[in-house]
Amino acid sequence: MGTRTIENYIKRVFAANNEEELEENLKEARKVRLKNFGKKIHFYAPSFMYYKTSYYRSSPADFPTISLTGKSCALNCKHCGGEVLSSMYSATTPEKLFELCMQLKRQGALGCLVSGGCLPDGSVPLGKFIGVIEKIKRELGLTVIVHTGIINFNAAEGLRDAGVDAALIDVIGSDETIREIYGLNTTVEAYEDSLKALHETGIAFVPHVIVGLHYGKLRGELHALKMISKYEPSALVIIAFMSIRGTEMENVAPPKPIDITKVIAAARLMFPQTPLALGCMRPKGKHRIKTDILALTAGVNAIAFPTEEAVRFAEKLGYDVAFSSLCCSQIYTT
CA 268 to CA 88: how far, in whole Å? Predict the structure, then answer.
């Protein structure tokens, strides 16, 4: 499918005013998905969130999340305010990180997501942890995924040499969103430079695009996808703004399921052979049920913490369902 054809398709999708119009345009996205990936669908439920349905129950130990900065984050973004960090294990020194990973390994962990708050420049302070991450990989054999924030070539190279299984990065496509929501004095070029650094090192990397981060409205998501398309990601994850109690944006309405699906459909056509996942961060309740079902119609390869209704819908579509306790970013390994 040529570039102009894809652009025309995206225009039609984004012009849809209601669910009926959108679903008519999703047929092409699902065709692309079936052609390139067949009928296998992967559902993920890592242990950093409790999950139980009649289909699957998450393990409390298999795949936890660790913050290298504890509850601290220099940015204090409007949508998060550091609240997300409070749900993570804390390991603020290399020694504490290795000790924690040994403990988690003894408890049955298969791997972990290493994350943390950001420094004022938007990066996660990974430097002093590179050596111990290499030790964790070598001595404990855990799957280690790292959330990087803005990153340069040397840091990306260090992660690659340490044996990190994948690097995750949230990619923002609007300068206004970077300033207003993150409070960060930089531009979209910093995210493109980060993508370039990750690509050039050869490390597996999985960009995340956050739908509706700009006060629940679409702003810059397509530009983020266009930047990512230059750098051959291992997989792509679409997530969505959800209000978190105690933050500046706790009363902001999330993007509508139809808007999240528009971004998913655009991603599917722009990345026809790249595994595409609907990630764990998205609104819950009836909103999630509708989003999950539309995402399946739009051609995702994976969904994190799927609703029971979505699993039933996947079976109705004739998909071969598989569950995993790993992070959905690992869809590229299947």
Answer: 31
